[in-house]
Specification:
By secondary structure, the protein is an alpha/beta fold. It has 9 helices and 6 strands, in the order βααβααβαβααββαα. Helix 5 links the parallel strand 3 and strand 4. The radius of gyration is 18 Å and the shape is globular.
Length: about 240
Amino acid sequence: MNTLPEHIAIIMDGNGRWAKQQGFLTRIKGHERGVLALRAATTGAAELGIKYLTVYAFSSENWNRPKPEINALMRILVKSIKKELKTLNNNNIRLNAIGDLSALPKDCQDELQEVMHATAGNDHMVLTLALSYGSRQEITQAVQSLAQQVASGQLKPEDIDQAAIAGALYTADMPDPDLVIRTSGEQRVSNFLLWQISYAELVFLNVLWPDFSKEHLIQAIAQFQGRERRLGKTSEQLK
C-alpha cells in the first residue's frame, strides 16, 4: 500500500470487439457494458486509495466514427452521468472533464456541468473523463496560449519552461499519471496525455474493456509495484 500510484490513467479499449464476440449486431452493447466496467474501475480505485483516475472516454478522432455510433455514445454518456451521480457521492469522488468539451452536444455539456457541480465538494478521489480529447490538440492549444502571452508582453520567451507548458495544459491542477493501463491487448497510447505520461509505467492487459474488473486493476497495480522507476537515474543511485 505504500507504493500505490497516485494517478492512474486508463485507455478503455475493446468495446466493439466485445460486442462482436458476444454476437451483437452493433458495437453499442459493448459501450453500454463498458459503463459497468468504468464503475468497477472507479469504485475499485477509490477503495484502494488512488487519488486521481483519468479515463480516455472519447477521443477527438472518435468524431470520425459512423454518425449512428456517435449519437448512441452521446446518449449513453448523458444517461450514465445522471445515473452515476449517487455512486460518485457515496464514494466521495469528484467528477472532472478535460478536452474540447464545447464540441459535445448541449445536453452532454449540461449534464457534465451539473454533476461536476454536484460533486465539487468531494475530496477522496478525482475521476477525470477525457472527452473529445486529443493530446496533440491539447499541446497545440497550450503553445498558442503561451505565444499569446508572449505577444502581449505578459510572458518572456525565456520564461517558457516545462512548468509553464504543464500549467497551460488541461491537467494543470493534477499530478502526472504514474501508471497507464490499456485494455484489449493493443500496445499504443493513441494520442492520450502524451506530455503527461513521459515517465509513466505502461501496462497492457489482454482483457476487453467490458470485462475489466477490480481484479484487473489490482493486477495492473501489482505490475507497477514490481517495476523499478528510475526516472533517469541509475539503480545504484536509487539504492
